Structure formats: structure tokens, C-alpha cells
């Protein structure tokens, strides 16, 4: 008898203020929300084994259309059995559509109604990425959650330019949905992306038109691109009320622990950011006593563990002096240790939020936690 895979769906479990506890069900597993997705841009979370990412507590990873289409190529990944098999990750994967990377990385690009013609940042080769091709690539990769193709512009920008990009993204959303219906497999889901800069009226219009497409989930894009923390939070507050409460809400490319706490407090369910691993590669550790800069000379003879309260074995087993030495010496192990510690910390932060929401004490937990982790050393 053929086994029936579960369909994609979101179940709200409880709410504390605006903070939401829920579950996203996919054929490859359940995602506990609020959730933080470690970024595996090119089919790897940098400096970590997939087993370490899973043990840290992650339910889902993010990979990227732009990077994987250039190297090794979506068709090759499909021939090799799909992205999950290729990178040995059996849980859900969300793929970014590639829109942000086309705008930020490609050497030369030309935006038209059809899509974006660009030159690769790797070798200068020419490519065309359209809503249809983006969804085709994401389907070839086998992504469980796929993102519409959109245009993300850097802020600050003129209102006219923000409106133009938002309107183009709405038209591309409709084309992305039609392409998804053609290319995707059962159980996969397509999320729309709300654009509009920090203009409340543009954000509202974008949200309302996307909701009209009746997609399984909605992302808030175009933030953390230069607008600042306060403007980001204000934009969330003016946008989230227009997104359906019965579907996941994903804030793209965010962010710091403070960003995550403040955004969950306003009703966001999902996040991704390179910060845990990127900061780890640059010598920073996120700990329950604050952020440590292990490059600092004051750690050179400090035999204290990096974080006695952290759940990562490396945080308890390695001294600050040793990791300081590794980072100052440029040794790979330093980046590996700190990326492991930071990835675990972010998952523990999300687990703490979920527990606090379940217990109806999110506001108190948030105040206490921010006081602890905003220290720098």
C-alpha cells in the first residue's frame, strides 16, 4: 500500500501577546516555530557537518537558488538525487529565489519585465533569471519551501523606485505561482514576499495583493538592507496585521538575537541569517553571558570555557585562550568551533522563545534575556 506523505500546513498552537507558537508540517518533517534557519547557501552550513546542525536543534535549512544555479547547477543536483541527498540533510529545506543575490552580487545586471539578465560574480558568464526559471531551479533542487522571485532594492531609496520594485515583484509573484503549479512536487509550498521598503502604504498594498494569491506562507523581504533596527521594527508593526494569522510569517535575512526577540514579539515565525557562522569565522561567540570577541588580547590567557551555560559541547570544553589562539593563528578549527557554538546558541534562543510562549511568560523572558545577551566582552 502506497504511503501518503503529509501535506504542507501550518498549525498555530498558542499565542502570548502577539508572539506565536506553532508547527509547520512538511513531508520531510515538522518545523517548530518560532524557527531560525541556518544558512547553507551553497549546500553547506559553513564550517559545520550536517549532523552538528541537526544536533544544535535546527529543523530546517536555507539554500540559495542563485549560487546553486551557477555552481554546481540545478540540473546536476537533480541528476544526483536532489539537494537533500546531495548534502546529506533529510529535513526540510527552504530555498531563497535568488533575487537578492542577483541584485547584490552580479557584476552586471539588467532588470526587465521578463526577469534579470546578469553576469556571474564567479566567472562573468551570462545568465537570465526569471520567475519561471527561479521556480524551475528550486523544483529541480527539491526545495520543500520555495520563494517567489522578487526584486529587493537597497535602502534608503526614493519612494518612486521602491513602488516600482514592489509592483514588479507583485507581477513576478503571479508568474511564480503559475510556474510553481507547473514544476513543483506534491507537499512543496510557495511563499510570497512582501516588499515596499519602509513605506506603510506600499507594504500594505503588497501584503493585500499577495494574500489574494492564497499562498501557503508569506515572507517580509527588503529589510535589514540599510534601514536600521527601529525602522525595521516599525515596518513589521505596520505590515504583519495584513498577513493571515493562519499561515507562517517569515522575516528574511534577519538577524541579531535582539532582532529575533523583537520580531517574535510582533508575530514573526521564521528567520534566516548568516550571522551565526559568519561571526564565528570572524572570531565572535554568542553566549548566554553576551557576545565575546575572541580576537581580543584579554582572552589570551583566559582558561575559562567559552560558555558554561551553553548547550554546545565546544562551548564548555574549549577555553577562551585556546580559541583566541586559533583565531589569531588563522586556523580552521577556530571558525569550526565558534560556528558550532553560535549555531547552537541561536537554536537554544529559539527554543527558549518557544518555551516562554507556551508558558505565557514571553515578555518577562524577553526582558531577562536581552539584559543577559546584550553584554559584549
How is the secondary structure organized here?
Elements: E1 9-16, E2 19-26, E3 29-33, E4 35-38, H1 50-56, E5 61-64, H2 65-70, H3 74-79, H4 83-87, E6 93-96, H5 99-105, E7 109-111, E8 116-119, E9 126-129, H6 131-141, E10 145-147, H7 159-183, E11 189-194, H8 200-211, E12 217-220, H9 229-239, E13 249-251, H10 257-264, E14 270-273, H11 275-281, E15 284-287, E16 290-293, H12 313-317, H13 320-329, H14 332-359, H15 362-373
Parallel strand pairs: 4-14, 5-6, 6-10, 10-11, 11-12, 12-13, 13-14
Antiparallel strand pairs: 1-2, 2-3, 7-8, 8-9, 15-16
Features:
377 residues; alpha/beta; TIM Barrel; 8-stranded parallel beta sheet; 3-stranded antiparallel beta sheet; 19% strand
Please explain how this structure is put together.
The chain has 377 residues and is an alpha/beta fold. The protein folds into 2 domains: 9-273, Queuine tRNA-ribosyltransferase-like (TIM Barrel, Alpha-Beta Barrel), CATH 3.20.20.105; 280-373, no CATH class. The chain contains 15 helices and 16 strands. The strands form 4 sheets. An 8-stranded parallel sheet has the order 4-14-13-12-11-10-6-5. Strands 1-2-3 form a 3-stranded antiparallel sheet. α1 (50-56) packs parallel to α14 (332-359), α6 (131-141) crosses α7 (159-183) and α7 packs parallel to α8 (200-211). The longest helix has 28 residues, at 332-359. The radius of gyration is 20 Å and the shape is globular.
Please provide a brief summary of the model.
With 377 residues, the chain is of the alpha/beta class. It is 42% helix and 19% strand. The chain folds into two domains: 9-273, TIM Barrel, CATH 3.20.20.105; 280-373, no CATH class.
